[in-house]
Amino acid sequence: MALWWTIARLFTAHPHPVLMLALADYYGSLARHIHVLAWQGPYCCERAAEERARANKFRCEATSLRAQQQRGRARRRSAQGYPTTKEKV
């Protein structure tokens, strides 16, 4: 256990050059990838909220159209039962 802590202290005092390359800000680096993900998070959340609102709008519209269609069928049945009705559906 003491050896592990000794290595950890050495690594924090003198980081490995590969770590510095991995954290450097160049195309394809971990730092750039993290920066892009930090930007993409809120962006994707906003787009998801817009898509959710659009889906809810279409769902409500479909429900409304189904209700109108059901009312239209009920009117047609009643109009057929009374041939003297002047209502045309």
Could you describe the 3D structure shown?
The protein is an all-alpha fold and 89 residues long. It has helices spanning 2-13, 17-23, 30-81. The protein contains three helices and no strands. The radius of gyration is 33 Å and the shape is rod-shaped. The mean pLDDT is 82.
Rg over CA atoms, rounded to whole Å, is 33 Å
- Shape by Cα distribution: rod-shaped
The fraction of residues assigned to DSSP E strands is under 5%
Number of strands: 0
Mean pLDDT: 82
Total helix count? Answer: 3
Structural class: mainly alpha
- Which range best describes the helical content: under 10%, 10-25%, 25-40%, 40-55%, 55-70% or over 70%? over 70%
Order of helices and strands: HHH
* Cα separation of the termini: 86 Å
Biggest sheet statistics: none
Which residue ranges are poorly predicted, with pLDDT under 50 across at least 5 consecutive positions? none
Which characteristics define this entry?
single chain; 89 residues; 80% helix; 3 helices
